[in-house]
Each structure stands twice: as structure tokens, then as C-alpha cells.
Amino acid sequence: KKNDLINHFHIFIRDSTNCVLATICQQFRTRDCRDLYVYLSCSSQPIIESSHNIKFACLTFNYNQLARKII
Questions:
Q1: Residue 53 and residue 38 in contact, taking contact as beta carbons nearer than 8 Å
Q2: What is the mean pLDDT of residues 9-35?
């Protein structure tokens, strides 16, 4: 389905420091990261491996035509 496309992305962040991220995904994963601020909308639990000082907040937005824009 066209509207389900946004839920099939996987984000893997590795070896990153002092970053601010905002993302929508099905799976979010970090490894060997430090000092991240993550604004996240994810359909599963984040996976955090060997990372420190990761702060999460909910990513909220209203963009009615987003699915059409990324195809």
C-alpha cells in the first residue's frame, strides 16, 4: 500500500557523537554512539547497543501529503 511505505524504513546509526536526529521509521537502532538527542516516531521499540547518554523524545508532526512526496 502507498500509505504504508513510510513504515518500512530502518535507521541504523553507528559510531556517532553529539548528534541531533529526527526520524520516522519502522526500526531504529544505535551502536557505539554517545550524546545523541533523538526525536523519534517508530513502530517498534528502539534497539540501543553499546551507546551512552541517548535522549529520546516523541517526534510529532502533521504533514498530510508526506506519503505522496516520498514516492
A1: no
A2: 94
